[in-house]
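Retro notes
What went well: the complex prediction finally ran end to end.
Inputs used:
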Amino acid sequence: MDHESPIVHDIFGIPGADLNLSNLLMTFIVSLIVFVFCVWGSRKLQMKPKGMQNFMEWAVEFVRGIIKDNMDWKTGRLFLPLGLTLIFYILVSNLIGVATAGVVGHTLWWKSPTADAVLTLTLSTTIILLTHYYGIKIQGTKAYLKTYVTPVWFMFPFKIVEEFTNTLTLGLRLFGNIYAGEILLGLLVGLATTSATGFFLSALPMLAWQGFSVFIGGIQSYVFVMLTMVYMSHKVNTEH
Amino acid sequence: MVAAASLFRGNVLVKGVGFVHSYIDSLTIGANVGGLQWVDMLVQLFFFLVLLALLKKFAWGPLMNIMEKREKYVADEIEEAERSRAEAEKASKEAADQLNQVRAEAQKMIEDAKSAGTSQQEQIIAAAKKEAERIKEAAQADIQNEKERAIQALQDKVASLSVLIASKVIEKELSEQDQEKLINEYIKEVGEER
């Protein structure tokens, strides 16, 4: 049960360039699943939607609702692809580790990519950087800089700190939820494999926890996109 | 793990805590917390951005397109329906107006025809009366003519009779008394003939 990450050290002879091959594999698989699913879902588009198109359009409407809650749709429509990709990517990432965990030998290959703080923080950092980018692009540099000293100048340090806390909380919230779910699932699996008694003892909690994890996975992907749009609206909304 | 399992069998509640601890320590996911694996970050970022770009092109773009197209289509349809409804209303109003107009015209025509008929009737009656009058007058004139002709003929006959009487009187040479008697008789005869 002594699992290890399949880490490759010092790629191309660059010191400190360590790559977790599991992350590479899982992000690739998740991207592939999301890509195939979404492209399959949105093929043969018709004016009168049928089957999968209904679901895809529902998803678009859902994300559009999130965006519309936070900002003007005119600027918000720019972020619809981002929000949609995020929600699908995170949802699939969250769920992929709930049903299965793959261990080859003593190496943990198959897991939720979002159960790794490095990857969730990458996502959150990307999002925060994007909010700054679009803040400057849409509002202009002057208005963007002005947001740091509104409503009063001494808010400046807090605003700076806020950016970092936003990044951290956004990434770690997702990581924590999914990681906790995977740990408990791992424990239950461990219990189930020890003995027959353990198997029966763990069956019911396992079922319940998997269901809960699916729920958590959905909620967290929604929360992530929601907060993305909230942060984005702070930067791009000219009225606020 | 075998040790943990045996512990577990012994006392689930108390020893379970220790089991969880040892298990978390042994998990690799735990080992990943902390440590800045920037290559992982780049890889993840790369995959995510590629996914974003591809989906934008192949999924979200077309989806948004068709949804906007549908929205526009629905709006157009509603507008079109409203317009055609207004048109229909206008047309039906026009039709009703025309119908009323036609009805009024028909009424007028009937009345005209009636009055024309009445006047023609009067004319015909007047003409007939006139004609009757004319025929009556002509008949009266004829009667008068006939009467006059008859009187003329009678007078002619009286004259010739008188001559005849006179000649007979002369032939017989009657007495004055007989003469008178004869004349009276003839006159009487004539009077009876008449």
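What we learned: Chain B has two domains: 1-35, 39-150.
What to try next: split runs per interface for comparison.
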